[in-house]
Amino acid sequence: MRLTENARDLFLPAACASCRSAPAAGSGLCADCTADLLALRPLLAAPAVRTAPPVVAGGPYAGALAEALNEYKERSRRELAPALGAVLARALAVAAAEVPDAVLVPIPPTRAARRARGFDHVATACAGHGDLHRVLRARPRPDSVGLAPRQRAAAAAASLHAVPRRLAALAATGRPVILVDDIVTTGATLDAAARVLRGAGVRVPAAVTVAAA
Ligand SMILES: [Zn+2]
């Protein structure tokens, strides 16, 4: 099946990642879906985990944005990075106005996810949109489906750790951090990341995501 799909991708012009019908431009999206993404306005997400930093999302996880994000993550359609990065950048503009001189810390993929995808999808989407500091690493993570919120929070907390030397260097600058992730659901991952950074004395007043579920 996968072979057939790969062969099809080789010989036909790529279909739009969102609507899958119209042929895509080099951006991976057709003109209509590109317009849908451009029409999105950033929103303030309200994650269930109250201790998570406030989150500005590029748009709701629905429609063209959800489809494009899924194709980007699950089918490694890296050509979508600029379009999704533009959505992220609008959320970032809102957050950065409240947090001057902030650096960006992306939520890292697990090693397995990165290998499967072939690239770090969050860091790639925010490339060029700020001062990126990769101070976090992800441990292998058990599937969180079916976990209660408390178990999910514990799994998220255990899954992230700092690169000590990089975190110390970041803390020494005194600059605040805006966390970056692809999607916010409960906020457990962002909360866990913020705790790691705050443990080193780094302020984390905000987070941005491409989409809010
Ligand atoms: Zn389309």
UniProtKB/TrEMBL annotation:
One of the Pfam families matching this protein, by short name: Pribosyltran
Organism superkingdom: Bacteria
Phosphoribosyltransferase domain span: 169-211
Homology family: Belongs to the ComF/GntX family.
Name of the protein this chain belongs to: ComF family protein
Originating species: Glycomyces niveus
